[in-house]
Amino acid sequence: MDAMRPGQANSGYFGRVYDFMTSPQVGASQPGADNRDLRPFKETNRNLVRTIKWCGRLAISAYGIHVHIVDLPPTFTPSGERFSRQTFAYLSRLNADDVLHADIQTLDADADYSPTFYIVRDYVRKVVCVAVRGTQSFSDIIVDLELQTEEIELPQVQPTPGEEFRCHAGIWRAAKALVSPQSKLFATLRQALAENEGFGIVFCGHSLGGAIASAAALLLAEYFIPDGAEPDAGTWVTNMSSGLPARRPIRAVSFASPVIMTADLASRAALGSVPLVTTVVLGSDVIPRVGHGQVRELRRVLGALSRVRRRHAMASTEGSDDARVHILRSYWDWRSICRAEDADDVMLHRKERIEAQLWSLRREVESDLYAAIKARLDAESTASTASTASTRIPPSPWVGPQQRDQAPLHALSARRQELDTATLRSEAAQGGPLVPPGRCIWIHNKRIYHVESALAFFSLPELRSDMFAAHFPAAYEEAILELRT
């Protein structure tokens, strides 16, 4: 990952129109618009931070007063009912007239699932923004817990052999219903775009809302590469078949999105000088790191750890205090020494010893998981050259296609090899493990980083005491406010 430093650019919190929306030629609303007028979007690091701040405020405000401690203006009727539009406008610092629609989720058990969303018009940024609320009802939880994936068909912008697009079935179904021509969102969005020539579309949301927003953007967008431009310098615009005004800029900014799509699909959404989907992840947030693939990988790592600990436990002398066996005790001992203000030389030596032992343990676990067994596999491959069947263990699913030729393979016992082979083949049959959508941005210690390999970065949950608290909307709100522009 490379640290991203704010660049030199526009002044003011809102600034001028964001670079990814400034191309006046990308405002054609007619299908027959001249494609030569389209230019690739540009976005500086400073504008990226401002976009994150703006979209984050809208995404978190979609939850309403449940995640804010604020003094609200008079937004209640005499009967006690809340004016949702005014409440959202107040929390997001908008004029209530610019909140074009507030659709509150129905509690009818027989009705089709539809998330709560708000549609906002912004004259400064020249966009119409759709903020989708995250998990806040039992219906939302049901969508979250649907673990099936669905193969989806999208045009390939860079055809790759074997490329397969799969998405979380519940998320994809909710997004299709949200942007269908019969939906309330679609009618309001089409009218707003028709009335505001040159305006683009921004989807945003937190958690489930971010996942649905990302999938909705995929459904409405197409990737356009201007003549003479590099393939990765294209721009995302509304497609002609969507029913919306064509060739309008479109993007999604997701916060704390769960894993919802395969790596191939996530890479597709990350194309362009400004990606279709930008996903923001805070610290050790567990939700972007939990899926069926991550659970299986955690099982494999814990299995390797157990084997290493057993080997050292049998080799240790009675009464020895081996940090490689007593992991938690060693960690808490190390943490207490780090926090001590008057640590002496003995304590510091103990700290260094723990660090060396735990680092050695990590190396041994990784060696057990990914040791080279090329000689044995070469022998098997030579013996079965006449057969189409292969007994080779697939590479780790967390290694991208470009590194798979050099990827280390699992070196386990014969029984574990069989189980691991079945697991990896099952992952491959489902298109591989799921990852957060689009280009991922990681916030850590008030700085932002670009995640170069989502497969590797989100392969396992980061086991920290704040991994659940880091997912809350309030945690994201605080972290985003602390970012410097």
From TrEMBL:
InterPro entries: AB_hydrolase_fold, DAG_Lipase-Related, Fungal_lipase-type. CDD domains: Lipase_3. The keyword Lipid metabolism applies. It is found in: Cell membrane. It catalyses: a 1,2-diacyl-sn-glycerol + H2O = a 2-acylglycerol + a fatty acid + H(+). It is an enzyme of class 3 (hydrolase). The keyword Endoplasmic reticulum does not apply. Residues 381-407 are annotated as: Disordered. Pfam families: Lipase_3 (PF01764). This is sn-1-specific diacylglycerol lipase. It comes from Sporisorium scitamineum. The gene is SSCI07090.1.
